[in-house]
Each structure stands twice: as C-alpha cells, then as structure tokens.
C-alpha cells in the first residue's frame, strides 16, 4: 500500500525505480565492479591504477593530501613506483609527458584547519610538473563542503565512495587495536572503516562528465575532452588494478547527487529522494553503515516502513565516541533524536543502532571509527557513496552516490554478498557464518548474539553518556545545517529573488553569547592559573610601552609584518587597544592598518595577476570581482563584509583597476567604525586584568555590545549597497 501511495510499484526489475532528473542524475550499467573495503585496499588499488594510467587522471575530493603514503610495509619497500601520492603523480607526469592530471580539492573553512594540509595548492604546484593541474573549489555555500570523492583514470575506470586521500584514513580490514603502520603525517590514529567502489563500463562516462563539469566551472584551464582509450567492451580495462578482480558484473546502476545552490547552479537533491524511494521498497532487511545519522526525515521514513512491513528489520552501524564538542552536540545529540524517531512504536528486536568494538587477546579494547556511507535494501539495492545521513548531505554539501539494482539472480547474489562481507567484518565472523544467520527467522538479533569473545563485535549505542543535548541547537545549526549559514544573493531575470538566511541572526547572537562566555572563562582561568599575570606586572608593562618616540614606528612595523604572514587584523587591533586605550588604540591601529594595506597593495602590484592567482587560486577571482568598478564605497563594503582575509584583499587590490588613494580612503571608511568598537573591547579587557571589578566587567559587556551593534549596522548598510548594485546590473 505504501509503495502504491508513492506511485512506486514493486517490479521484478529493481532498476525501474531509477528516474533520471528525479531520484538520480544518470542511469547506466557497471560492466565490472568491486568494493574496496578499508583504506589499505583502496590505496593499493589506487596506486596500481595510477601506475597504469596513460591518458588522464582526475581526482576530486574533500581533501587530497600530498603527504599520504598509498603503500605500506614490504610492498612499499619493493615497489617500483613511489608510494607517497605527490611523488607518485610527479613520477607518472614525468614518465608520460602527454598525460593530463587534474586535482580538485575543497578550499575548506577554518573549521578543518587542524585536519588539513596548509597551502594545498601551492604545495601541489611546487611538488608536481606543469601537466599536473590543481584547483581549490571555493564556490560551495558557506557552511557546506565539497564532499564528493571520485577518481577517474583514462576515462575507463572510476573509484567513488567515502574515501579521500587524506590523513587518518589508512587501515587494514583487521582493524587491529595496535597497528604500527596506522600512522599519518599528523601521527598515529585509531581503527577506521570505509568503503570505496571500483567500476568500469558505461557508468564511467557519467563520472567522467561529472568531474569535468566540476573542474571546468572553476578553472580557467579547461579539462581535456572525454576520451576512453578502449571501447566499453566486457574486457577489463588496461588500468584496472590486477590485485582486485571484479566481484560483481553487469549491474544496472544510477548516479545520485546532491548539488547545493552555488554560482547560479540549479540545486538538486537526488540523494535525498533516492534514499526515501529505496526505503519505501524494503521488505525484509535494511543494512545501513554510515558516519552520521541525524536526518530526521530518513528516520521517519524508516519508522513508517517498519510499521507497514511487520517482517522488516533494520540495523545501523556507526561510530561509538564523538570527536570534540561539535560532533557530540551536533551529531551524537541528533542521533539520540534519530534513534527515538526510528524506534517509535517498533519492537526493540526489529531495529538496532550499533557501533563496532574490539577486544584483543591481551584484553585491550577500542572502537572502530566508521566513515563509510553504505546502504543495502534486501537483495535488491546497494548504495555506496559519499553521503552521510545528515541534513548537510541532503542539501548543502556536494555529494555523489552510486546505486546498484538487482535485476537478475546474479545481481542479487552480488549485492547480498557485499552486505554479508561487511557484517562479517563488524561481527568477527566469516561470510559463510553470516549467510547462515540470514537463513534464519531472526537475523538481526542473531548477529548481535553469540559473538566471539575476542575480535570485533557489534554493540548498541548509548549516546546519552556523551551529551545532555543542552548545546544541540547551537552546534547543529553550525555543523549540520540544511541551508548556507550566509546565503548568496539570488537573481532571476535581473531581479533579486532571494537574500540572506533566516537562521543567520540567531547564529550571530549565539556566537556573541558564546564569545562572552569564552572570554569570561579565560579571564577566570588566567587570574587563577598564571602566577606572573598580576595587576602590578601588567601595569608596569603598560607603563614601559607607552609614551616613547618609537610607539608609531613599532605599531606600523608590527602591522606590516602581521599583514605579510596573514595574521588576523582583528586580533592585532584588540591587542593594540588593550595597551594604548580606547582613544589612541583605534588611532594607532588605523594608522598601522593603512600602512600595512599600502605595503601589501604595492606587493600585489609587483607580483602581478599571474603570481597572485598561483598563490590564492579561486579566491583571487572572487576578491577581484568585488573590486571591479567598486570605487571608494565598494572598498568600504569589502572591508565591512569579510569575504576574504585582510591581507588577501590588500594584495588583490594591487592588481585591480582601483588606485592606491581610493583604496586607502575606502579602507579607512570601512575599518574605522569597527576599529573604535574594537578599541572599547580591547581597553575593557586590559582593565579587567588590571582592575577586575563589576564596573570594568560592565565596560567590557558595553564594548562587546557596541561592537556587535557596529557590525549589525555596517552589515545592513553593506547589504543595501549590494542590493542596489545587483539591481542596477
């Protein structure tokens, strides 16, 4: 009845569910396919395929870290080609000078600063020859990410799924408690589970077009045309890695994407629609393996299907412990809600949310981090992709899932074997043992019972130990949003049709409140924990640095140096105000900022457009576009709305058509009002240290309030200017 209500009928051909431009982008066929389970297998297969490449290599990822070793142990020692990805691609590019290699990586936000390689484009450009092109995608809406993970080689084979060439991804299928080789550029890490799928045949054409579309929309150097070396026959392509023979053949499949609104691109939510349609087809068993489960719409669909099909069972395999406050309050707190919705009115033996844990024979225990994104529906459908079951993956990030359909008995056996292989790993059993369990009447509960004492087991989650959900609204709105944190202006037929984000004001106010709490906590901690931080010492320091003839030259030099190293100008201005007070602090700070702006303006002019674009990639174009025909008012708007770091704006101004005097005048108009507010805040902070009292705390609160008001007013004025410019054009 449920399927009839949705307009979806159960047919012998499972692939009849696939509807292009509704729940998928393209329908096709995978002539050959094999899942690559866990990092060791994926990296080995990727290394082999790169070595065999002759024509082209496209790598699209959330991250592409130049330092990652693809091989380990004896295989790495005995390999004829380099193991480190950057050295391997350099070797390949020099070996075949006609080959074209394209690397497209997300130009990520500061939220992932500690997890990513700094200056990624510059690093890759320095490590590789000219036929290796690198681009950073900065067109993703604020709050979203470039989350697709695709590799296409010679337009004949494609890798897709949950794995990036990034830190903390490598592990073996054994997921040992102690593994000496499980170490990356940032040090050792714990067990991690992931899944990638390797395919050949007609489906590769879809991935080849997708990676080219992603590349061509942001890069001035267009990618080469689609050109497979051999025809799409049943034979294995020459670039197929020999150690990984196909385990599935001739499967109907579909590509489903999430594309957010970005630079005029029409957004699509094929992944979301596909998952809902797949769940509506389930009869007996749904297996889900996913990093995050927060999307309540998916939980509601699962619950509805469980109620409609009394024989249906559902198991979710995810991770045990969150990493940091954002995960605990955004994802683990939301998993509590997901679990509550999923289990509502359903017998406990029919649905389980689990994690994978291991104890070795020495009694040491740990939990496997699950990063994969897999779903199987009975023996009819198998999803391997990049999408988490989260709000952001359904609408805000760029995602791509590959969905296989079981149209014949062999297809069904192939899909079922993947499910059994994964569950065998998670429960410490063999595939044959799992097959016997699924031949019984109650496979779900037998999977969780009678597991081995040592090795991996599945256990039910209990997320209340990690969060009381008090901060869930704040962190969920920032870490797992459905819409951009700041939406771009949307135009249609020359008219503004959309602007802003209704949640933005709430987020700003919550961030201000959080800032006040953090500052208060730091003051309390410092006053009780740092012996030398006393009122007398600080007063003496202030007296020693004020009133000398070197004040202005010192401040100017500090601002110039800070600009050259991209040090945040806000932090520096607060420090100057703390030392020199609410009157002279802003004056000195403004003078230093103008000198720094002029210096970097000249440096940008010397470097020229080509040099700057090599340094900053796509961000240079974004800032340069803002300068075109902007004038003094336009520069003031750019200073008020932080579209790019202070230093980068100064450098790009040097190659724009705007003059130095205009630029400095606009900088003064845009920066001086906020500088006054920073002066009040910085002076209040110093007085709290030297004279902590209700009066000084009140001044700090007043200063922060005035700063927030200045930001609000300036943003309003800037938005009015933006709208006027947009409507005029």
Q: What value does the Rg take, in angstroms?
A: 28 Å
Question: From the helix content, strand content and strand pairing, which structural class follows?
Answer: alpha+beta
Q: What oligomeric state is this? A: single chain
* DSSP strand count: 23
* Low-pLDDT regions: 1-10, 489-509, 522-527, 532-543, 611-619, 685-691
Indicate the overall shape: globular
Instruction: Classify the beta-strand content into a percent band.
Output: 15-25%
- State the share of residues found in helices, binned by percent: 40-55%
- Residue-averaged pLDDT: 82
Q: Main beta sheet: strand number and arrangement?
A: 17 strands, mixed
The separation of the N and C termini measures: 53 Å
Query: Helical segment tally?
Result: 23
